[in-house]
Amino acid sequence: MTTRTKLVDLEWLESNFPCMQACPVHTQAGRYVSLIAQGRYEEAYRYARSPNPFASICGRVCGHPCEPACRRGQLDSPISIRALKRFVTERYGPESRNPIDVFGGKPEVVHSEKVAVIGSGPAGMSAAHDLALLGYPVTVFEAAAVPGGMMHLGIPEYRLPRDVLQAQIREILDLGPELKLNMRLGRDFTLNDLRRQGYKAVLMAFGLHRSRDLNLPGHELDGVVKGIDFLLNVNLGYRFEVGKHVVVIGGGNVAIDVARSAMREQQKLDAGGSLPNELTSSEMDVAMKEFMDVSRAALRMGAREVQLVCLESRVEMPASEEEIEESVLEGIKLRPSLGPKQFIGEKGKVTGLEVTKCISVFDENKRFNPKFETGTEFVIPCDTVILAIGQSSDVSFLKPEDAIETTR
What is the pLDDT of residue 258? Predict the structure, then answer.
């Protein structure tokens, strides 16, 4: 009887772990899940944290592509990888009472070439983290007054506590990167300025902070606002009034965030008002969540109605199912398969959104090409419309002399 032996390399071996391959930073999810099962929590945390500068963040708001790829799902249901990551980060992450230094202190600077990173969001801070570990001097320039990019400015606090985010960023800065806030490229400095200051490389990681417009008739009416602008104001603590009847146009996770934030923002504004004699079931759901959030403080009423209008049918909505279910529980009303036609207003103020039935979003070639059914138009009364139809980058600061090529 002969024995056959097959030699495999590490790349071949790792390719057989679908959860690891699905993770953008190739975290060994199966490894830390196994260690958690064995009660070896500290070791599990090290495996979760080592490749991921934002492990504590991902334990809360990651899209967890590892879970749909999990082989366990072929038997019953995927392992809750994201929740297990949160479990170990809450024990040993920078936000915990017993934080672990995975890298053994601040690394020594062994390279003289300075690197500038534009933007302190996930991409910028991850680059600063890895460059510091490689021994490079790094400076992060952030246009806002707070670091974190859209983790701070776009994700509502009820989904991502600010103390967790601050602890994670502080952990990265402890490795050596310098952070300069209120420094906007094109306003406070230029790329040529960085070159003159001796920076040998520049990473532009300024994110998608511009909301896409919906140039329909009436888009200039008071009360029609952009989703990113709304979230930026809310997450920076500025007063941003929304009406009692809010319509959010969109269907992705940004639209869900906007809709839920609108509900919660109105609750803050109404905190000092009187309560109605009765609460609807949707209002009660929202009120109960706020009731627990403020530790039995005064009951806060939300917007009377928040509706989410999207082209897609309920099953086609690109938002994650978890987000959709949570929004429905909070009282958001879904209005799928509807396309906005125009904004209706009186005396310069929006009073309604005219919509029409969308019968298909994509054509036979799977290209975005919505088709609508004539004669199905109707108006949804509202006093605030928030657009959450996508984001783009603002590259207006680029000058011809910068010699930076841009693509779509």
Answer: 66
